[in-house]
Structures are given as C-alpha cells and as structure tokens.
What we know:
Number of domains of chain B: 2
CATH topology of the domain at 1-164 in chain A: Four Helix Bundle (Hemerythrin (Met), subunit A)
Helix content of chain B: 25-40%
Number of strands of chain B: 8
Shape of chain A: globular
Distance between the termini of chain B: 82 Å
Strand content of chain B: 25-35%
Mean pLDDT of chain B: 78
CATH architecture of the domain at 1-164 in chain A: Up-down Bundle
Structural class of chain B: alpha+beta
Low-confidence stretches of chain A: none
Number of strands of chain A: 11
Low-confidence stretches of chain B: 124-138
Helix content of chain A: 55-70%
Shape of chain B: elongated
Largest interface: A-B, 58 and 48 residues
Mean pLDDT of chain A: 88
Largest sheet of chain B: 5 strands, mixed, barrel
Largest sheet of chain A: 6 strands, antiparallel
Distance between the termini of chain A: 61 Å
CATH superfamily of the largest domain in chain B: Nucleic acid-binding proteins
CATH class of the largest domain in chain B: Mainly Beta
Radius of gyration of chain B: 23 Å
Strand order of the largest sheet of chain B: 2-4-5-7-6
Number of helices of chain B: 3
Number of helices of chain A: 22
Structural class of chain A: alpha+beta
Order of helices and strands of chain B: HEHEEEEEEEH
Oligomer: heterodimer
Amino acid sequence: MAGLGFACLLLALAVCVYGIAASxxxxxxxxxxxxxxxxxxxxxxxVILTVAFTVLEVAFVSNDFSFNTVADTSSRTTPMLYRAxxxxxxxxxxxxxxxxxxxxxxxxxxFLTRSRMRDIxxxxxxxxxGFGGFFVALMVFYANxxxxxxxxxxxxxxxxxxxxxxxxxxHPPMLYSGxxxxxxxxxxxxxxLLARRVDADWIKAIRRFAFAAWLFLGIGILLGxxxxxxxxxxxxxxxxxxxxxxxxxxxxxxxxxxxxxMIQEKRGMLKxxxxxxxxxxGTLAIMGTFLVRSGILNSIHAFGGATLGxxxxxxxxxxxxASIYLVVSRRDxxxxxxxxxxxxxxxxxxxxxxxVLVSLCxxxxxxxxxxxxxxxxxxxxxxxxxxxxxxxTVPLALILVLLSGIGPVIAWRRATLANAxxxxxxxxxxxxxxxxxxxxSGIDRKPFAIAMFCCGAxxxxxxxxxxxxGVRARRAMAAESPLRALVSLVSRNRRRYGGYVxxxxxxxxxxGVAASSSFQHASELSLSPGQSTRVGAYTVRYVRPTATIxxxxxxxxxxxxxxxxxxxxxxxxxxxxxxxxxxEGFYASQEASQGSVGSLIGGQPVxxxxxxxxxxxxxxxAVAPDIETPSLKRIxxxxxxxxxxxxxxxxxxxxxRAYLRHPPPAQFxxxxxxLVMWIWIGGLIVFGGGLIAIWPAPSSVRRRVAARSRARxxxxxxxx
Amino acid sequence: xxxxRKRSVRLVVALSAAVVLASALVxxxxxxxxxxxxxxxxxxxxxxxxxxxVTGTVMQGSVxxxxxxxxFSVEDRAGGTSIPVSYTGTVPDPFREGxxxxxxVQKQGSSYVGERDSLITKCPSKYTTAxxxxxxxx
Lengths: 720, 138
C-alpha cells in the first residue's frame, strides 16, 4: 500500500509539471486544447491525491505500523476518531492534507470558470499547479508520508494526548482549507496581471472563493481559540502566539480585500490596492504554513524539524518578487476609473477600514517576526510579548468595530451631512445611552472595555436600523407580515444583509472579548479537601478527590491510564451554583527506563478542564494533582521492582486508592470571566451571516437560466 | 488649490502620518522587547529590572512548589550553567524536568523572577521521527 501511495506522489508531481507546461504553452500560443488539458491536469491531480490521502487514512485506521508516520503518531490504544485525525498531526500527513485540499479547491475554482476568462484561468492553472507541485515535491524529497520500516513495530507511539480532543478532527482541515483557498484569489490575481486583463471580471470570478477562504480561516481560528480555552489547562483563548498570529494575518488582509473589492466593482477604483491585497493574502497564507512547518519561531505549536525552512523561504521570496514585479510592470493598466469624490462616503469608510485592517496586519507581522528582525538588525534575538500587541491592537480593534457600524449606513460617492445625520443619529444615541448606563452602574475603571461596549451598541443600532428600514420598505411595497418581509428582504439581497449579519456577529464577538479580558477574576492556589477559596463573587470548595483508571485497550476512552481529579462545589451567596469535576489524565509513555508501573503513567499529563458555561459568565477550573509525594512514589518504585508489565495496572489501582484515602494538596486554577460565551455566539452569527452571503442566490440562478434561453432564442431568430 | 495639488498634499500628509506611526511601532518594539538568551548568557550579562526571555531545559531534580510559587532551575541545552527561577501563573501541561522551556524573567538579587503566565514548554520530540532504537523499546 505504501508503494501505491508513493507512486501517487510521483505521478502527482509529473501531472503538475505537465499541467504547468501545457497551460502556459496553451495560453502563450493561443491553442486552447492545451490550456484545457492543463486544467484537466488539475482534475487529475485531485483524483490522484485523493487516492494518496485515502491510502494514508486507511493505514492509520487499520493500524498499519509499517508506515513510519502511523507508528509515530498513532497506536492501537488511540481511539478510532483520533486515529483518523492523527493523519494530520505529523509533518508529512499535514503536507499531504494541504496538497489534497489545494487540489480539491483548485478543481472547483477552475471547473466553475471553465468557459470564462480562458487566458486568466490558464495562468491561474499553472500557478495553482505550481503550489501543488511544490507541496508534492516536499513530500517526495523531504517528508515522505509513505516511508516504511520493516519489520513493522508491534505498536505505535500514539497520538499526542494534547491533541486528543474533538476539535482536532475539524480545526486543522478548516484552517488548511482557509489557507489553500487563499491561494486561489492569488492565482487568479496573478493570472489577470499576466494576461493584462485587470478589469472587474477576475474579481467577480474569485469573489466567492475569497469569501470562502475568509470564512474557513475565520472558523479555523475561532475553533483554535475555543480549543485552547475549553481543553488546555491555560484558560485563555488567545495568546499572540506566533502560529495564531500566522493564521490571523491573511484573515485580516482577506477581510480588507472583501471590502475594497466592492469599490472596484462599483466604481473601478483601487485596482492596485486590490490586486496587492490578494497577492499579500495568498503570500501570508503560505508564510503561515511555513511558520508552522519550519519551527523558525518559538511557539507552543513549534513542530520541530527545520528541514522545510529553506524550500519555503525560496517559495515565499519568489512569490514576493513576482508580486512586486507584476504590480509595478502593470501599473499603467491598474489606473483608477474614478477619483474619491468625498471623504464622507462609503468608499472612504471602506478605505479607512482597509487602512485599519492592514495596520493591524502590519503590527502583528512586526511583532510575530520581531525575533528574526531583531536578530538581523542587532545580532540579538529578542521578542515582544502580549502587552506590546495589546497596546496597538486594542485601539485599532475599537476603530474597526466603529467602522463596521458606519460603513453600512453611509451612502456611496458623496453622503450629505443631512443624510449622515439621519443614518447615524439612532446608533449614536444608543451608544451614548450605553455609556450612560455603564458609568451609572459604576463600571468606570476599564476605559477600553467601556469604549468597546459603546462601539458595539453603535453597531447594533446601525445594523438594526438598516433591517428595520428594509423591512418597513418591503412591507410598504408588498404588504407582507414583518417576518416574511424580513425573510424576503434578506433572500433578495443576500450579500448585503449577510454582510450586515457578519458585522453584527463581529460586534458581539468583540464585546465578549472586551468583557472577558477586562473583568476576569482568576486564582491559582493549592487546596486540600474541605478547603475553599473565593473567586470573584463565587466560593469554590474542594469537596473530595476523584480517580479513574482505564485499562490500556479501552477504545472508548481517550486513552489515559490514570485520571486524578477533584470534585468542586461552587456557590454564590451561600446558594449552590454548580458542581465541577476537573481532572488530569496521566498517559502511558514508551520509556522502558521508567519501569513497568512508572511507564504506565509516565507520559505526558493532560488537563481535563471542567467549567460551568453560562450566558453571563463562565466558571472555569483546572487541577494539577500531586502524584510525586513520597508515599505515592514508593508505590510506583515497589511496583516497578516486583510487577511485570501485565500486572502493572494493579499498582496503578493501588496508587489511585492511596491517593483517594490520603489526598495531598492539589494545585487549582480557577477563572470566572463574564460573557465568554458571546465570543462563540458572535462567531456563530458571523458564520451564519457568511453562509447567507456566500449562498448562491436563487434569483441569480434564474437570471442565468433566463439569459441563456434568451441567447438561444436570439440565435434561433438569427438563423431564421 | 487645484484638485491635483490637493490630492498630493493629502497623500503626503497620509504618508507622513503612516511613517510616524510605523516609527513609533518600531521604536516601542525594540524598547519593549525582551532579549532571548540562554541561561549562561543570562548569568553573565543580566541587569536587574530588565526582562529577558530565557530558553533552556528544566534541570533534573530542581522542580519544587511552595503554595502559588513554582521553583525550578533552567540550564543550558548542553548542560552547564543554570539559573534559579521562581514563577507564578499558568504551568503548561507538558512542563517536566528535562523539557525545554521558554520563560520571561527579571533578575532580583541572585535569583530570577518569572513574569506571570509567560512560561511556554516546548516539546521538541513531538513531531520528529523517533530513532528506531526507541521504537524497539516498546
């Protein structure tokens, strides 16, 4: 089977090379059959990589440990779901996932444009196959997912316990879909520049892909944040870690592009800017992959193995050089058709939003790559921490949220003062009322959080007003019930109202972020059973310790041999609010030097967070039990010297009982943060709005059908 | 003022604002940054009151907890010099003796105080292929 997989990779590489040559020759010589053949090479690539991915997936699911990647990242004790997801936990497997997703998305994009923009699409085909070929070549020459060892080991190392969470199944594919989708606008943008056809056609063709890239990347980022918050024993959702930042940067430039492309569609302006944003977004997506895969920066995600650094640096350098060359050499074609008429217009609101988004991206870029920049400039590696990021991103985020309320209600071209007053009066009043209520209720120490609440209220006001006006106008026209009017309003203007819903969701999300980061109570301390502590308005009491033991080959469990936890009683003003049961899982290691008993629990311990999540606040808890006490250590050492590996579980059971009988003080981490749930709710609203906006409108399908039948009848008439 | 002149004035103003802001950003990043050093470099050149990001491995037998404070020593990857660190805040799950860690510290007297929640544990073996000898142990 490994042979089949590797053969697929070799074939894929050949297909990429052929496809690039065919499409470039086709477009240069004007022989359409060649560029068509190049496009079909992308379809073939998708089929071949699907086979390759299936081979690897089957190897993981069927525990074929002759595959090195399977032996390194999976095991029989790894539950089925995580075995299937372990494919992308290794460097090799994630490269394959990247190439496979790229081939699928490219196929979709090129299929949808098969009869349009032949020259642009042919260049785009070559560029997409270039990316595909790059990743396939990495696998063939540097990180072969189909490398094998004979004889096959009897058991694998198992999936890292830190990755054994349901999010592992969906977070990486989402993020990688986002990254790969970012390269499609880049390919078409470069194609348009190469073909010297830079009107709005190519933008219309890739608009939906840019939006899908933005949506997938956003979901991937949010899932990562949610994973970090609800599963890792840290309690935060964002830490300005290099890899988090790497995924946020293309998302920011992508957001900017989604706004500024409307200006190009409507007014023929900002062509240089748009094409630059598209190229930057694609390049940042590749850089994001590079950052994860090269281990060049210190990160909790640092995946080691610096072998892939050089090829990626070369690819990124080529991308940047080609982008700059193309934009500069085509600058005459990229002149704007119009000028900005007025500073009080939707164009200028969008431009302001672009400036803010790109500034945010620049700040994050600088901070993320600062260790490299500083080493290059001063010879010393140095890094900046979260406070530095916050100093710049917080004010920029405030402006951004405010603009997301102003943009939708201000007129194109030139808004009059009267018009602006009419549209901004209600939202401003709502924002001021919010300010008054907040100050009145005595919350006045966190100016940034208060400002964010007011900006959020402003957005609710302006978006709400748009919906109310739209529904009212619709009812005046069609005499429908309010709900029906709302539905038909949204379904007839999906992109517009979907976008409004996205803005609403962003405001909700930022309110959640502001509230939870500014008004959080956290406590870290050691407690013995019976003791209690106060966290914010709540009292947490450590009732008693808990313990679970899982036999090694239990499929249902995530595979930790021993779990030690605590039963916690949370009360407020003497009334019981919740019962929490955080624990820590101790996993088996493969270090035989730890002894028969010690190796059963000598792997990496992993926190299992327990929380009471609510609309107004989350109570979050994690525990780190102490198993290094002299008496517990003695059980392990006596067991090591007397028990065989088959009997070792007995000692673990004894250890668990000893722990329950005489529990040592355990280390706890409690967090009470308000409105965290609104971050996830805001994310869902954004997702819903995105789906509304991206869904093909039935009316446009009808229009296309109608246009086609009209064309047919015209042709018929001409013939007659 | 002609429209073209007005536009170029506007452009110059916008660009100079961008340059000023960018320089502020660059300046603050250099002044706020913590240099990344190894324990032996730190032992030689640390000044009290300045933050440093130290990268090294947690020394065997050095981890001890007293209430909220976690005490451990970080030594050079190759062994040798080590520095004592007292740390409060979140301890990542993979934190272990012998593991590679990154922590931001300030020198206070002869010991080093870790910045709250700045501890990162690297798990260098996580995604690299284990040598065959290790596999046979299983």
